[in-house]
Structure formats: structure tokens, C-alpha cells
Amino acid sequence: MALISLTVTNVYGKNKHMPCFAHTLNLVASQPFDNKDGLDEANNLLTAVKDITTYLKQNTNAADSLKKAHQTKPLGLIQSVCTRWNSIFYQLERFVELSEIIAPILLKYPKAPTMLTAQQLEFIKDLINILRPLEVITKGISGENYVTASKIIPIVSCLTETYNTMENSTYIGAKTRTLIVNGLKKRFGMVEQVHLFSCCDHFRS
How many domains is the chain partitioned into structurally? Predict the structure, then answer.
């Protein structure tokens, strides 16, 4: 993918290369959880959720207990993957949804990871609310049957306004939102100066 992008840039010029918008949004969404440049508190919460998810998937008895506990609503835990768009959002959302079922199951197994506290779950709920606008936009623009280039400038503007006016219930949420805002500025701050995007937006209007 990187080689193709470089080739397009070299052959047609920098202003003719349009990076995948949905992929770039996913980079913004995953930034707070990055081991190097992210937020330690957010990354630690995700790691804790990953550890519990892995345990409940790999321990046969625990996995069976989870299935039996919600037979009327058979939902499995989701493990986030860096190459899958919005997977962090979906993992956190599903974990919170099943948290009341997961907690008593973990208590049955002495070697199981420790369940998250009520406060940590509140932090995660705040993170979910922060990631949701990016998930909604990514899902909306991922269709292959229509051109989305004309929507990029207004979408970026809308996202920026959404995050600038968003209120958070936790300090981790506030820090995460700041990273999201900075990520949008870093990756899309010059979007109006990309000729193709500006032209598409002009003809659409």
C-alpha cells in the first residue's frame, strides 16, 4: 500500500494523491491507545480489556460459562485488531455490554485477570462516547458504490466542531478528546488546500 501511494505521488504529483479517508480516520481513532504516542491511561484500560477478552476466549471453561450466561442474547467478546477499522470501539462497546455477565465468571477462576472496577468502566464508557462519531462517519463513508471525495471537507469540519464542543464525564475522556482533536488537525488541517477535495466540494455545491 505504501509503495502504491508513493508511486501515485511520484507519477501524478502530490496534489493528485488522495489517501484513504476511512483509514486515516481510523488512525486518528487509534492514536489515544498507541503505546508510544498515546495516552497511558487509555492504553492501560484497553490492555486490561484485551487481557480479559483473551482469557475468556482461550479458557474453555470460562468461554462455556460466558455462552451459558447469555443464551437468550448470544454475544461474544470482540478482540480489536489494528488493521480492522473501528475495532477498538467495537471491543470496548461489547465489553461494557457484557460486563455484568463477565464479572461473576472471572471470580470463579483464581488465575483469571481482575475485572475492571466500576470507575474504570465509567472511563471506558466515556471513551466509547468519544470514539462514536468517528465510528459513525467511517461506517457511512465505507460504501463502494458512490464517490465520497466531495464529502471530506464538510465531514472534517463537522467532526472538528463536534469534538470542540463535546463534554466529557471523566478526566481520561477529556485527555482522549484532546488527542482526537490534535489528530484531526494533524491529518486533516490542510485538507481544504488539497486541490481535488476542494474541486469536488465546489462542484457538489
Answer: 1
User: Could you tell me the residue range of the domain that residue 30 belongs to?
Assistant: 17-204
Other C-beta atoms closer than 10 Å to the C-beta of 98 total 21
Query: In this predicted model, what pLDDT tens digit does every residue of 9-18 receive, in sequence order?
Result: 444 445 544 5
In a domain, 7, yes or no: no
Does any domain span residue 184? yes
Percent of the chain that is helix, strand, coil (3-state, to 5): 75, 0, 25
* pTM, rounded to two decimals: 0.83
| 28 within 8 A of 183, measured Cβ to Cβ | yes
What whole-number distance in Å separates Cα of residue 128 and Cα of residue 140? Answer: 18
Q: Looking at the domain assignment, is residue 145 inside a domain?
A: yes
pLDDT (tens digit per residue) in 38-70: 999 999 999 999 999 999 999 999 999 998 887
Element (H, E) at 97: helix 87-107
